[in-house]
Amino acid sequence: MIDYFPKLPPLSDFEQGLISEKIEIDAKYKLPKNITYCKKCVISNQRPRIVFDGEGVCSACRYWERKKAVIDWREREKELEDLCNRYRRNDGSFDVLVPSSGGKDSVYVAWELKTKYGMHPLTMTWAPHVYTEIGIRNFQAHIHAGLDNVCYTPNGVVHRRMTRLSTIEIGDPFQPFIYGQTYLPLRVALNYGIDLVMDGENGESEYGGDTTTESKTGFTPKDAEEFWLSSFPLEHWKDRGFTDRDLQIYSAPNFDRLQKSKVERHFFSYYRDWRPQNHYYYCVENTNFAPNPNGRSEGTFSKYASLDDQIDPYHHYFSLLKFGIARATSDAAHEIREDLLARDEAVQLVRRYDSEMPSEKTTKVFLDYAGLTSGQLAEIIERWRNTRLWSGVGASSRLINQVSI
Ligand SMILES: [Zn+2]
Fold this sequence. Notes:
The chain is mainly α and 405 residues long. It has 20 helices and seven strands. A hairpin with a 6-residue loop joins strand 6 (390-391) and strand 7.
């Protein structure tokens, strides 16, 4: 029970009006009318920006084939060594910033940079909306394993109001969080005089998205805006009554200052064969990482990915409403590509867990956090339910077409 969320102001007339307005989801996300599932994994063509080829295989699976057969990882290793040699400092100052929640992937990156390449990393955390106990534990564990960290937690009232409006208007409670993920590392790097930012994976190629990003070593701020923020630039929030003060921490760093700096942002997954399960074992061994004590996370079968935010299940649930696929699909698809799961087993796991509703406990936290009533949340859910993919409403609703063997 969390007792420190002050009540948010009631919904504005504008917000209230939006709730009852149905969204044309297919047009908004340019979704293909007919659902197709990848022949190799379990992802569907409803995932925004994913591409299926003539053989019915998704772009993420094709990328993984190239990872296994074409990409010369020894050459990439050399590129990574060269990169570190260019940025390594010997005067005691930090030389690489690693955006990290304390999760297994980013901690693996920071720990490798520190112990294998002799870098002096600073991890930077953009705090989750509402920490889980295991999230705090792992966050602390990575620091106490021997890493320096700076954590930024945004103003709770502003973040909660943005999260509520984002859930209503954008159909994703995480959009405000994404601004921080996108821009804050660059601002912190500039402030600390660190010229290299090392992100984890390029989600566009690893999980299926725009294939043109595959050969990129990292994203420029312009790339990031295009893939993650294009529909809702920060200006949008000003039109919704948020002030410059409210939005300061979500905004991009001064572009001139960034251009003049030497800051570069890279993906570790460009240099290293990215295998999340290996990162889990690595962090258990090296940085005292612990999995979800409940045995698995809500909405999936896995126990070691994105453990830190109590409202995370709603981020995935809104994806399920809009696209018919959610967290178990994403986890299973990745495990198939990693050769950890056969497709028929993956199908069973998706059918069992993907459309699991967030638990009562999670729902209570989300409602208190976002300042919504359960009736309002039910209406928002129906606003974002893609009726082409679902039959029925509320508790009796069902996905019409789920992945099959
Ligand atoms: Zn696939």
